[in-house]
Amino acid sequence: MRTFLGLFMMMIVSGDNEVPINGFLKDSVLLPCNCSGRNLSRVVKWQMEGLNGLSRVLELDVGNTSDSFDRYKGRAKIFVANCSLLLTNITAEDQGKYTCRFYVQELYMYSVRKLNISAAKYNVCQQPARNLDGDVRVMVFQCDATGRYREAEIQWYLDGELLSNSSKTNITHTSPVGTPTGHYKFKTTLFTQFEWTAEPICGMKVKGIPSHIEYVCEEGTGYFTSQQQKCSMRYFKIIPIVLVLGLSLVLWCRWN
Q: In sequence order, which residues have a C-beta less than 8 Å from that of residue 56 and are 6 or more positions away?
C-alpha cells in the first residue's frame, strides 16, 4: 500500500509537465516545482539534461543553492517555499529537460519541466515607404528593431525572397546601440529604384537560434507597419458609412 501510494503521488507531481516552458535569451524564466510537504531534512535537487545529453545538478541545502558544475553561478535560485527554479540571463545552452527531485517523508518525488530557448523578443517597427528627397525615382524603406540579444541583423524580404544589394537596390545597416535597459537598437534603410508592386517586409535574423518577432512601433514614433496601415485605411472607410447611417437614423426618427 505504501509503495502504491508513493507511485500515485509521483504521478500527481509529474503529470502536469507536458507543456514546454518558453524562455528568451538574456531574459529570466521560472521553472515551477510544487514540493509542498517535502522532507526538510532531505536536499532538493534540480537536474538538467541538455540537448547534448550532458547533465548538470543544482542543489538546495538549507536555502543555499550550489552548482556542482559552476554552470549557473550567479544565475540560478531555488526558492525554499516551493522549490521552483529561477534562471536569469539565460543562454542557448540552458535549453533542455529539468527535473526537480525531493522527498515527501520517505517517498521519492520528482517533477519534469522542458525548457525551450528562443532568441530574445524583438520589437520591429517598419516605416511607410517614401521617396528620396529630390529624387522621385528612388523609394526609401526604413526599419527599426529593439531586442536584448546583440548577435542579430535586420533583413529585408520581398514576396518571401531575401533581398540583397544590387545595381538598383542598396541596403545599409547601423551597428547595434546598447541602452541602459540592456536592450539593443537596430536600424536599417533600403533604397531602391525598382517599381515593386508589393512592399518589402523587414525581419530579424538571429545567429544560431530562432527569433521571436513582434511587429509593434513605440509610442510617439509615428511609424506603422504595412498591416497597421491597412487597418487604419479600413477604419477611414468605415467612418463615413457609420456617419451616413447615423444621420439617416436621426432623420427617420424626426420624420416619424
A: 47, 48, 50, 67, 68, 69, 71, 72
